[in-house]
Amino acid sequence: MRTEANIKSSKPATGKEAIGNKQSSPKNSNSVKHDAIVLLKQDHAEVKKMFKQFDKLAEKQDIEGKTQIANKICAELIAHTIAEEEIFYPATREAIDDDDMLNEAKVEHDSAKELIAQIVSMSPEDPMYDAKVTVLGEYITHHVEEEETEMFPMVRESKKVDLKEMGAMITSRKAEIMEEFCDVEGEIDPQQLQVKIDMSAKH
Ligand SMILES: [Fe+2]
Ligand SMILES: [Fe+2]
After folding, report:
1. For the chain, what is the domain count?
2. For the chain, where are the alpha helices, taking DSSP H only?
3. Does some domain include residue 122?
């Protein structure tokens, strides 16, 4: 089990790690690749794309296609939110001293998880299915905007978190979580996903 002590750097992150933007030289491309904030933003962009794909498939009344993408969205969001709650948020709470912001973010995660639990347990032919996925997309857009415009810049500016080390931890934790609800062929198993959501709701 990882502890906060592992996550927090013993010394402030270097300027290179702290900045970690994509225009930097190839020399520090490794830092960029593993920068926690860069990785979390990539997840956000990926999910946004998937919500758009869902809209198109739902419009075409492609039940199988939209179900597949909705399950992918739910799986990705569960892995992302759990990794944030276990790794990123605790370190952020210490680094930026803004409990209100972190508490609100956690409440937003909980609402999203409730909706995700409903989506994975309902029939895609239910007339409310598309509406639930659309509202989930709206929740996530709002939440992501707050993370990207408020929380992430504050964490980076604080220079109190080793974002490179944390990025590697988030990547491996997310892979571990995904394995719990994917079958041998890599397909998402909605029942296992439901089990994981129930477990995470108890914490
Ligand atoms: Fe996020
Ligand atoms: Fe989040």
Report:
1. 1
2. 4-7, 15-19, 29-34, 36-59, 63-83, 89-96, 99-121, 129-146, 152-158, 163-180, 190-201
3. yes
Total residue count of the chain as it appears in this document: 203
Residue 10 belongs to some domain of the structure: no
**Low-confidence winner among 9-13, 17-21, 80-84, 172-176 (lowest mean pLDDT):** 17-21
What is the reported pTM?
0.84
Three-state secondary-structure class, residue 47:
helix
Distance from the alpha carbon of residue 130 to the mean position of ligand 2, in angstroms: 22
Question: Residue 108 Cα, ligand 2 centroid: separation in angstroms?
Answer: 8
pLDDT digits 0-9 by tens, 114-149: 999 999 999 999 999 999 999 999 999 999 999 999
Distance of CA 106 from the midpoint of ligand 1 (Å): 11
Secondary structure (DSSP) of 123-152: -TTSTTHHHHHHHHHHHHHHHHHHIIIIIH
Is residue 137 included in any domain, yes or no?
yes
Determine the distance separating the centroid of ligand 1 and the alpha carbon of 15, expressed in angstroms.
23
Query: Ligand 1: distance of its center to the CA of 119 in Å?
Result: 20
In a domain, 6, yes or no: no
Domain interval for residue 146? 27-201
How far is ligand 2, taken at its centre, from the CA of residue 103, in Å? 11
Percent residues over pLDDT 70 in the chain? 83
